[in-house]
Amino acid sequence: MGDASRLLDRKVLFFGGKGGVGKTTCASATALAASRAGRRVLLVSTDPAHNTADILGRPVGPDIVEVQPHLHAVEVDAAREAARYVDEVKDRIKSLFGHQILKEANRQIDLAASMPAAEEVALFDRIGSLIRGEDDRFDLIVFDTAPTGHTLRLIRMPELMEGWIRALSRSRRAMLGVDQDEGSDPIMRSLSERLEGLREFRAHLVSPRVTAFVLVLVAERLPIEETSRALGQLEDAGVLVGALVINRVLPATSPDPFLVARQAQEQVYLDEIDRRFAAVPRLRVPQLPRDVCGIETLETIAGALFG
């Protein structure tokens, strides 16, 4: 099936998949297992519907908190990140423009901040800064992401933003003219720094030694099809898929006729998963008799994943 131990050697792990398949549980269990192995771990929830605190059984919010020795957690608030991002941009341009231009620039920034993509850009910026090592307390960052489509947009963000910044740089060069020194222009320096940050983020993202993506699914038709699409898109983006986690696998033995029939249907899907995704390590997590809540039950999931 697959060996999960190599996942813990990475510096960045993304957990993704269809909504409701147990991404948070599997990401939290992995973070816990890595912390037990001595890694200094930060568990980051970027899903707007945060339930990290519910799974861990203790408060988690927009500021990093210690959960266990070697394990910290944070639930990133996209709206808060967008507001912080806007404030930083406004502070940066104060020294670049006069009062009248500054007033109009701030108006344009506020207008842009009200657009739907603003929170995604701010969220991407926070993810990028964490991956680039903004906080040196951690040697493994585990991201519990939003459902697949949203996550794939974030992963494609470096390419999209690089094209936008290049276009802005060309416009600025045209404004400066051939006699102006680009290196002394604060706007060009800011754009160059931003471009370099995007390239660094992209380099981390596509390095198989640094980053791996883990797709979580259950043995049902719709999650299988979504996993197949996500695999293709991640491969096209150059991101390594380190493992598939098949969650909530039913026990194979039960006298109950309904459960026997349900397990037989599930086995059909398990066989299909093994056939269609044979090139990717596959890990199975059993269906537990109770809800996952708290460190003790997470230990059970971690044991199923990592032995």
Helix/strand layout:
Elements: E1 12-16, H1 23-36, E2 41-45, H2 52-56, E3 65-68, E4 71-75, H3 78-94, H4 99-113, H5 117-131, E5 140-144, H6 148-176, H7 186-206, E6 211-218, H8 221-236, E7 241-249, H9 257-276, E8 282-286, H10 295-306
Annotation keywords:
307 residues; alpha/beta; 8-stranded mixed sheet; 10 helices; 8 strands
Q: Measure the end-to-end span.
A: 13 Å
The proportion of strand residues reads 5-15%
For the CA atoms, what is the radius of gyration? 22 Å
**Fraction in helix:** 40-55%
Brief summary of the model shown:
The protein is of the alpha/beta class. The chain is built from 10 helices and 8 strands.
What does the model show?
- There is one protein chain.
- This protein is of the alpha/beta class and 307 residues long.
- 53% of the residues lie in helices and 15% in strands.
- It has helices at residues 23-36, 52-56, 78-94, 99-113, 117-131, 148-176, 186-206, 221-236, 257-276, 295-306, and strands at residues 12-16, 41-45, 65-68, 71-75, 140-144, 211-218, 241-249, 282-286.
- Strands 3-4-2-5-1-6-7-8 form an 8-stranded mixed β-sheet, sandwiched between helices.
- The protein starts with 11 loop residues before the first strand and ends with a helix.
- The model has no long low-confidence stretch (mean pLDDT 85).
